[in-house]
Amino acid sequence: MRMQLPLVSLLPFLAASWAKPAPNDATTTSTAVTTSSSSTNVSSSSAVASTSSQTSVTSMPTSDSMSSTMPSCSMPATASGSTTSSTTAPQNTSLPAPVAYGYVASYHIEQADDLKHYPWSNYTHMSFFGTPAIDDETSLGLTSSESLVQELVSLAHQNNVKAMLTIGGYGNASMYFSSLMKADPDRNSYANLVTSYAFQHGFDGIDIDWEYPNYNKTPTYLYAKYDDTSNFLSFLKTLKSKASNLTLSAAAPGEPWLDMNQKPWTNMSEFASVLDYVVIMNYDRFGSWSPTAGPNAPLNDSCVANATQRQGSAVSSLKAWTDAGFPAQKLLLGVPAYGHGFPVAASNATTQAASDNSSSSIALYPAVDVSRMPLHGDKWDSPTLPGGTFSFQGLMDNGYLQLDGTPADGIVRAYDNCTATPYLWNNGTQVVVSYDDAESMKMKGEWVKQNGLAGFAMFEVAGDHENILLGAVKGGLH
Ligand SMILES: *[C@@H]1O[C@H](CO)[C@@H](O)[C@H](O)[C@H]1NC(C)=O
Ligand SMILES: *[C@@H]1O[C@H](CO)[C@@H](O)[C@H](O)[C@H]1NC(C)=O
Ligand SMILES: *[C@@H]1O[C@H](CO)[C@@H](O)[C@H](O)[C@H]1NC(C)=O
Ligand SMILES: *[C@@H]1O[C@H](CO)[C@@H](O)[C@H](O)[C@H]1NC(C)=O
Ligand SMILES: *[C@@H]1O[C@H](CO)[C@@H](O)[C@H](O)[C@H]1NC(C)=O
Ligand SMILES: *[C@@H]1O[C@H](CO)[C@@H](O)[C@H](O)[C@H]1NC(C)=O
Ligand SMILES: *[C@@H]1O[C@H](CO)[C@@H](O)[C@H](O)[C@H]1NC(C)=O
Ligand SMILES: *[C@@H]1O[C@H](CO)[C@@H](O)[C@H](O)[C@H]1NC(C)=O
Ligand SMILES: *[C@@H]1O[C@H](CO)[C@@H](O)[C@H](O)[C@H]1NC(C)=O
Ligand SMILES: *[C@@H]1O[C@H](CO)[C@@H](O)[C@H](O)[C@H]1NC(C)=O
Ligand SMILES: *[C@@H]1O[C@H](CO)[C@@H](O)[C@H](O)[C@H]1NC(C)=O
Ligand SMILES: *[C@@H]1O[C@H](CO)[C@@H](O)[C@H](O)[C@H]1NC(C)=O
């Protein structure tokens, strides 16, 4: 059974996973994955990137979600037939280039100069994240400086990248969407505000990260008071009518947004008519709120034997959204440049591989050692409300990984083939980490391609190290 996600456990920077009621317990065996000595050796491609991940947290609790999601952007739909030519008009059958969407967490930027080190040329869209929806239809309430916003838009444009602005985030960062969008004239005023801000600052698109419409368990009291999801759709239509030249995206959980009875909408086609992209926040499926360790960002979960441990996945999300009539080619798979750490007793974390006494294994879904909660993660983890979160870079900084992304000395790595998730066991700190590395990212990229999604969305760009994760997911896509 899924534990309730206390707001306190959430980190400022994550988008979390959807706390949908877990199906009933089924039988499960205590599964284990066998260890492998190293991850796939993916060469770190770009010389640019990395220093961005050395920015340290400044704080600013904004986003986080209990559901997974991130937003996305738009792209031209498909190939168009060639018009002129005489006899055989050759069709342009090549598909649009995949969307490589990156979130830039404003609260991890210490100085505007940091932005110069982001791998701009490797993304198609960069979205500026960290603007809560505030209780005011006359002010957007950005906490970032004007010059930082200008720098971001300018760097994006210099690199032929679409500059997006994300509004919202987990919990309180979204709490006023409900009233802002409930009816005109507020709804119209808010659409005017967002549009004029974007126009004035040269943004190419808007990304709404409402976590979550009608979700009555969000620890704020404003949700599901009105019909949030219907009002959200009306807002997006209004926004589209005012900003038809902008890309519109939304971050979303693994299932379509809820109706007032807490049931996912079954027909998302009208949303598809106004949104260029929906980012499926397929992360935070397990985290500090979970009773056991488990995969942060499972690619699949229908292969998980114990139904209670199925907390959604890329596979289940794609099915849920497309079953509701939202086209795969407007979906972006949200992928995390971070993992979740869990304190686990050594006797619970490791198992002896049945067939090979020489190699130990990491148990899947071991019980969390509650006596060591909360667990402190890396420097971006909240000092006051730690959630055991480590960025990919943070796993390197804290001795879990080497700079090439492979396990550090004394760290055991295992890979769960069902969820396509690597795990680390640190016997020194007695911590299990589920995360993403080059191997799992490549599989996600391949899956995105095989299933005809528009692309992926990385949360967050600065969590990567030397583009190891980015290169892997793109490698899978191409
Ligand atoms: C299934 O998972 C739940 C949650 O971790 C656990 O409580 C339960 O014991 C598991 N069931 C089996 C049969 O292992
Ligand atoms: C990764 O590949 C590079 C180039 O082939 C090689 O120099 C390096 O030793 C490899 N690293 C690991 C950990 O295998
Ligand atoms: C074909 O379509 C792709 C994707 O829309 C585009 O990038 C490419 O430039 C087009 N090629 C031609 C010859 O029009
Ligand atoms: C969120 O807002 C509620 C209601 O205003 C407040 O009680 C709570 O402290 C806020 N939580 C955080 C983490 O700021
Ligand atoms: C969109 O159109 C508005 C109004 O014409 C204009 O001010 C803005 O610069 C345009 N933005 C983009 C990205 O085309
Ligand atoms: C979904 O809604 C659209 C627009 O309202 C409608 O045209 C379509 O028939 C609906 N699809 C289903 C399966 O009900
Ligand atoms: C997910 O798991 C199911 C059940 O084992 C399997 O049929 C399916 O092929 C898997 N899909 C992926 C993408 O791994
Ligand atoms: C593993 O250990 C058991 C008990 O010590 C022993 O019987 C078995 O032969 C060992 N297996 C291997 C593959 O070494
Ligand atoms: C080890 O796992 C068992 C069963 O899952 C659990 O009851 C126990 O509390 C765990 N031990 C520690 C120290 O976490
Ligand atoms: C996991 O999958 C890889 C290929 O992706 C395969 O080489 C390996 O044998 C599999 N491991 C298990 C335990 O099934
Ligand atoms: C794991 O750490 C414990 C101390 O916490 C130590 O006694 C044990 O030898 C270590 N095991 C390995 C395999 O390093
Ligand atoms: C990033 O872009 C640079 C050049 O702009 C290129 O050399 C490198 O291969 C790219 N890396 C990735 C991971 O896309």
Automatic annotation (TrEMBL):
Q: Which SMART domains match?
A: Glyco_18
Region: Disordered, residue numbers: 22-92
InterPro entries noted in UniProt: Chitinase_II/V-like_cat, Chitinase_insertion_sf, GH, Glyco_hydro18_cat, Glyco_hydro_18_chit_AS, Glycosyl_Hydrlase_18
Q: Please state every residue range assigned to the domain named GH18.
A: 102-478
Query: Catalytic activity annotated for this protein?
Result: Random endo-hydrolysis of N-acetyl-beta-D-glucosaminide (1->4)-beta-linkages in chitin and chitodextrins
- Which molecular function term from Gene Ontology is one that the record holds? endochitinase activity
Gene Ontology annotations of biological process type = chitin catabolic process; polysaccharide catabolic process
Sorted alphabetically, the keyword list is:
Carbohydrate metabolism, Chitin degradation, Glycosidase, Hydrolase, Polysaccharide degradation, Signal
Q: Name one GO cellular component term.
A: extracellular region
Q: Which residues form the signal peptide?
A: 1-19
Q: Which family does it belong to?
A: Belongs to the glycosyl hydrolase 18 family.
- Output this protein's name: Glycoside hydrolase
Identify the species of origin.
Lentinus tigrinus ALCF2SS1-6
